[in-house]
Amino acid sequence: MAEHPTTLEECIALPLKEPELLEVTEKAKDWAIMHGAAMRSKTNFSPDSLNFAPFLLTPSSFPRKEFEKAVALQTIINRLMHNVAHDEEFLTTTLAETIKVDEFTANLFNVYKKVLASGFGQDLSLGILRSDYLAHIFEGNAIKQVEINTIASSFGGISTHMLPLQSFVLTELDQPEKLKNMPDNQALAGICGGMIRAWEIYNNPKAVIMFIVEDVTYNICDQRFHEFYIREKYPHIKVIRRTLTEVHDTGKLGLAKELLIGDLEVAVIYFRAGYEPGHYHSHNEWDARYLMESSTAIKCPSIHYHLAGTKKVQQALAQPEMLERFISDPEEIKAIGKIFTGLYSLDDNDVGNKTFEMALKEPERFVLKPQREGGGNNVYGLDIPDALRKMSRVERSAWILMDLIKPPISKGYMVRPGGTMPPPLVEVVSELGIFGVVIGDVDNIICNYQAGHMLRTKVATANEGGVAAGLGALDSPYLVD
């Protein structure tokens, strides 16, 4: 059997000589801040200042044919998630056990049930999705899906700046011939295009696009890039930002179920908050969510799209034969089936009990995931048995077990605000995210396209890779054959 490639060759010979490394890193940091590849500091927060976002000095290698595969699959994944979101029976059955023990998912599901009962004010949904992948060394570096995000799929804005940043660095290092292996990335235009299309479909030139945001936004540039892009290209479209609390305090439905915030009618709602319990301080924020879901505004995501992004749904989709419910083309089913990794239910039944025993026996093969977005919640390897033993049989159904994907390792310089200079050369692994945009209702899809990509790279020894959580860094792919 052929040896699996466990490393990927770097795009340039490393390490760099220290004087050269210091000089180019200083330039790259300033480039990042001046072009908005930046975030607000969590430790020294000020609304008036930015730090550059953590980044890789040079692009990290990623297998070309796997990158192309991920790009090609995105429109099928968009369609799959759209069909899942509109399958009431599937969502209800799949989440039945989870909502008994996961209060947050139960609250989302209650909003869904209430809207179903009173009727959707708007049949159309806007999906801005991100499908995340790791290459898996035990399958010849074939990509495996880590998760699919259906709410607040972030870093489309800043990621668009990683290609020019790293192109600048490679040119400074006299390696301009490398640029041809870095794929173009129009994530910002692609994602904003979805919101603009939804605004046009809503068909009221005076209506606004509303971003639902956190009380304090650290990832401000990523959000503002979308807002400023829309304002620049389409000056007639107004964009407003509101928290869930502000929607509760100032929002109401008009006579035709249109959503009014003060005296502004809302055409499109883009959720950049609302995906974790901390965003809902009281019943008021849940009331605000229900108010928006009942309205004629086009939501990104609608409540059913949000539920379709839960880990439990992802686990259910990975079961053999399940894809046939949502996709009719056998070739597409095969292609999607190949990117899924082993996902196992922990429900309180025979299947779940088998998973439980398997996890105790060989914990190093797995990762344990709860129903949460935003990163930093998973349990890995040898920590799994303890975590599982502390749960009741019922509590387990709020979690799924997933095969641990082993990505190939490469080397790079991770540049962080306040980090040591020169930055250390570290072993890293990269996770590719492909953006997709889909608009449609239960019967028709009227818009479906792939919308750019992002690459997040983390130190090979770190389990979690969230950039906002502080463990990963932004990057872009250097495609290798």
From TrEMBL:
The keyword Acetylation does not apply. Residues 207-308 form the Glutathione synthase substrate-binding domain. Pathway: Sulfur metabolism; glutathione biosynthesis; glutathione from L-cysteine and L-glutamate: step 2/2. Substrate binds at residues 130, 223, 456. Its cofactor is Mg(2+). It comes from the Eukaryota. It catalyses: gamma-L-glutamyl-L-cysteine + glycine + ATP = glutathione + ADP + phosphate + H(+). Its EC number is 6.3.2.3. Mg(2+) binds at residues 147, 149, 373. Gene3D superfamilies: 3.30.1490.50, 3.30.1490.80, ATP-grasp fold, B domain, Glutathione synthase, substrate-binding domain superfamily, eukaryotic, Glutathione Synthetase, Chain A, domain 3. Belongs to the eukaryotic GSH synthase family. This is Glutathione synthetase. It comes from Musca domestica. The lineage of its organism: Eukaryota, Metazoa, Ecdysozoa, Arthropoda, Hexapoda.
